[in-house]
Amino acid sequence: VASSWAAQAQPGDPLNIGGPRGSFLVADDYDHYVLIGDETALPAIGRWLEAMPADMHAEVFIEIADAAERQELLSAAQVRVNWLERNGFDAASSTLLEDSLRDYEPEDGDTFYWIGAESMRARAMRKFLEEHLGVDKAWVRAKGYWKARAEHGEA
After folding, report:
1. Which fold has domain 28-146?
2. Could you tell me the CA-to-CA distances from 91 to 36, 86, 98, 104, 154 in Å, in that order?
3. Sequence ranges of the domains in the chain
4. Which of 8, 10, 66, 129 is placed for a possible disulfide with 135 were both Cys, Cβ 3.0 to 4.6 Å?
5. Residues contacting 135, CB < 8 A, separation 6+
6. What share of the chain is helix, strand, coil (3-state, %, to 5)?
7. What is the helix (H) or strand (E) element at residue 38, kind and residue range?
């Protein structure tokens, strides 16, 4: 819709822009939170962490191109951040997030999982959590933030 409008837009045409909207809000009664994402999910991960109170616990896995993309993430919560650096490898074919998720040992208690990454990868990680770790579907939120190019053209 927006690309069609942009292709036909003329100087002076009205444009309405909405500001950041709240992402899916989850109850704060989980024992633990796991946030998983690539660099495109950094703003959302930062927002999640800033909103968490001191009594929350979170494990964060963030895949980035290299160390230069690391950012300070502020939170009152008890947070452990795992920076996963591709160091020249392609973002679409990377498996750093998936490998970290396979190696992750869930905490005791109820855990909510939030995933923001390339669309197919986010879907695969959600499936892994549900089918291999037995995580309840209601406790997983996966969001495709972008799509990798298809082999012969764009997706």
Report:
1. Rossmann fold (3.40.50)
2. 14, 7, 12, 21, 15
3. 28-146
4. 129
5. 111, 113, 129
6. 30, 25, 45
7. strand 32-38
